[in-house]
Please model this.
Amino acid sequence: MLAGLNFTLDTHLGALDLLGEVAPLGEFLQAAAQSEIAELFGFRVRVLSLEALIRAKRTANRTKDLLVIPELEALLELRKRPPG
Model:
C-alpha cells in the first residue's frame, strides 16, 4: 500500500493508533482472531487480548513497549485469579 497500513491520530483524548498490521500477529483478520470486544466511550470496539498485546510489544522491542510489559503481565495474572 502506498499510504501504509498503520497510522497514529492525535485526538483531544490522546493518541489513537489505527493498525492494519501488527507484528507478529499479522494483518487485520489474524489480529482480530486474537482480540476481544471492549466498550470505549459508548462504542463497542475490538482490542487485542493481553496475551496478544504482550507478544506484539515484545516483537516491537522498543523501550517504551518493553517498559509496560511487566504491568501488562501483572494485569494478565490478576485476570487469571479466581474471584474472591
